[in-house]
Structure formats: C-alpha cells, structure tokens
Please model this.
Amino acid sequence: MTVAPGPTLTLGYRFASQLPELAVRWQAEEAPQPRLLVLNDALAAELGLDPAALRTEEGLRLLTGNAVPEGATPVAQVYSGHQFGGYSPRLGDGRALLLGELTGPDGRLRDLHLKGSGRTPVARGGDGLAAVGPMLREYVISEAMQALGIPTTRALAVVATGRGVRRETVLPGAVLSRVASSHLRVGSFQYAASTGDADVLRRLADHAIARHCPAAADAAQPYLALYESVLQVQAELVARWMLVGFVHGVMNTDNVTISGETIDYGPCAFLDVFDPASVYSSIDTGGRYAYGNQPIVAEWNLARLAEAMLPLLAEDSETAVGIATEALGTFRARYNAAWTAGMRAKLGLPEGLDDAVATGLIDDLQTLMRENRVDHTTFYRRLGDAARGDVEPARLLVLDLAGFDAWLERWRAVGPDAGVMDLTNPVYIPRNHLVEEALTAATADDLGPLQRLLEVLARPFEERPGLERYAEPAPEAFGAYVTFCGT
Ligand code: AMP
Ligand code: MG
Model:
C-alpha cells in the first residue's frame, strides 16, 4: 500500500503584512478527532491541491488549521459592520481565520479561510465554534450558487472536529474551509475609516485595487474607480440573487464583499412561492432583508461604503460627498440594467426586442406571478416548455387563467427562445426541505443524501430522469421555513 504524502501548500500573507491594523495573528483550536465529511475534489484540483493528500491525517490537520504551512501567518480579520441598521464598531472573525493567500495554477490569487476554528480575540460572547449542520449547509448552498453561475465564496471541505458544540443541545462540531477572491468587506472599510488613520484606509483601498480591479490603479481617480467597481459587481450580484430567487437573509455591511461574491450562508434560503415579502431568518422580524428589499438594502450598504471612503475621494469633505453621491446615484441604473438583461434571458426574449415591449412583458408577468403565488423555480422552467408550444405545464400552476393566457399570447408572439431559457432557468435549486433532509441525515452520520443532493445541484440546468423529487416544491407538511443565524 502506498500512503499519499501530506499536502504541500504555500500560502502568502499579503493581508497580514500590508494591513496589520486589521489582522490579529492567531491559531486554530485543536480538533481532538478530525474526520473528513466532504471534500471538493474539483475545487482542490483547481487550486493545484492534491485531493488524496488532503484526505491524509496531515491534510485534515491542515483543513482544521492545526497544521500551519511553513511561512504562513494565520490571522483573524478585524472589521466593523452595520447589523440590521445598527453600527457595531468592532466585529471581526470571531470564529474564523484567514490562513493566507493561495496562488492557483491559473495564476489567480485566493484566500484560504477557516470557519469554526475556535475563539479569537474578536469573538465577543461567542464560543468560536460551528456545528456540522450549518457548515454543511454553507457547503451545499455555496456550491449550488457556483453551479448556477452566481459569484460566491467556495467551500473546499468540511471536517468534523470531534468536539461538541453547545447550542440548544450539544451538536457535533465542524470546521469549514472556505476559498474566496478575498474576504474584504464593506465592514473592513468601515473599520479602517474608524481608526482615523488615513494611511490605513489608503493601504486597504490599494490592497483591494490590486486584488479586485487592478485597472483602477491607472484611472484618473483610482479610489473612485474602486468604489464604482464595487457598485457594479454588487449591482450584478444582487440582480443575480433576485433572478434566481435567493434570499441572503443577513445583508449586514460585514457580509457585503468588495469582490462581489456572495458570502456568509447563514439564514439564507431560496424562494418557493414568488413573494417579495419572503423572509426566512428567525431574527429578521422586521423583514429588513426580505427578498424584495435586497436591491434597496444593497444600495444602503454601498452608501455606508461611500461614507467610509470619503477621505479617499477628495481633500475637503464637501467635495468628497458630492463625488460619492454622484457615484452612488448610478447604482439603480446599474442594477436595473443587470436585472433587465437577466429577465430578458429568463423569458427567452429575442435580442433587439423593443425595450417597451420587453418591459411590458416582464412587469406584467411579475404581477401575475405575485398574484398567483406560483413556485418561482418551477414556473420559469415550465415557461420554457411553453416557449416550445407545450403551455399546459405552466398553465397548471396558475389560477388566473384568463390573465395568463393573454400574457402567453403576447409573449409567444415575440418568438421566445426556449434554448436560452433552459440555460437560464434552473430545474434544481437547493430547496429548503431537501437541504434540511440532507443535513439531518449527515448530523446522524449518513452522508448519502448530502452526496446525492450535491450531485444533483452540480448540474442545475440539466433535467434528468429519476430526479423528479429534487425539482418539486416542498410538501405542504414542511410548513413555513425558518433559518437561524450565528449557528
Ligand atoms: P455573521 O452574522 O455570521 O456574519 O456573524 C456576525 C459576527 O459574529 C461575525 O463577526 C462572526 O465572526 C461572529 N460570530 C458568529 N458566530 C460566532 C461564534 N459562535 N463565536 C464567535 N463569533 C461568532
Ligand atoms: Mg459574517
């Protein structure tokens, strides 16, 4: 028998060295009995890591932060954040660590990060730990987002630690290893600004430019160009969420990335019925982060980023506010352009179709969907059949048949492209009842349902025989879905 050697991994420490004010050197808590629950072989290969080596004892020590590659400098990142509108001056990685930056064979630089790796100096009252269920949930949903083509942090592995985590009951603990373009957030800028040290803020902005929009360095106003690039990637991201029916659930400024990737899969969920007021998070009692509020909340969060960046935009604050206000004013147009382009694809509208006709079709359909409380995902997919002439599956979902038939006639008259629709409207999304079923089984040591769910979600646009139950809405008995934050 040959034993695969442990992984060799070289990690950079750009963040730790360039921004020591935002980084606390730290190490992970010992995992008494690490056991691999799931490894993302494809992502490992993309990163130039050998999956077999990651599966070894030494590999698991690396994936729990218990073995630190030579030269690496793990840190907890410090940031601030507006949480549900209230400002918290000092948050940070309370239960997470940035191990360092990894350069893949493709030359891309990415963060390797751990979640659930023990208390850090910014843990406040938290225990620094994470339970198996929520970490697998992040794995499943982030990988589903990736397969749907939506920018997201990735999940490399979930390793059970062998340590119990005290929640309502004692649950098995786990560490998630997460890969991201970076972990810079709006909250990072808020924290840097709050130090009152203009040099820290400038270094953070330069670091962000180098990592996410190097072209901004050559712009007439590099920091304005950075801000505009965040406006653009966030507008596109939130439009993608809206188009697929994703509810993030906790759009605090510390959960809004500079890269434009979705981060922090806590109380998130996908819509069943199309309803703008949908809220799944147990703590979002006011509906601040309801599905339909997400674009406006994104704009609010980006206003907070602008405030933090003011000292970079101009010497005197009045000029800076003017520049920031004008830039933020472009957010709605950026969002609308991204959303409308996405809706045109969802409805298979031909290129060159008159804007007024397209807008009429889109708006009227939204009204019909809302009034008829259709299942968001199933409805769009069945519209693809309708584009091919088979209108009954879509009609079955609707109560107001007269209204829908009139819309169908107008829509079919423009010649919708069913092929485009099938590549845009998924068959399979991580439906809440399926995710819960897989996590419950995994927590009781049966990883079969999780593996099958991951396989289904890896090819969301390809309808496959035998997988009908993965495409169906939740059974009535599943009831209203509630998710929990900070788990
Ligand atoms: P989140 O809503 O998941 O983004 O978390 C908000 C903040 O709480 C972040 O700073 C987290 O690091 C921190 N946090 C969440 N859960 C824990 C925990 N169990 N222990 C320590 N810090 C935590
Ligand atoms: Mg967070």
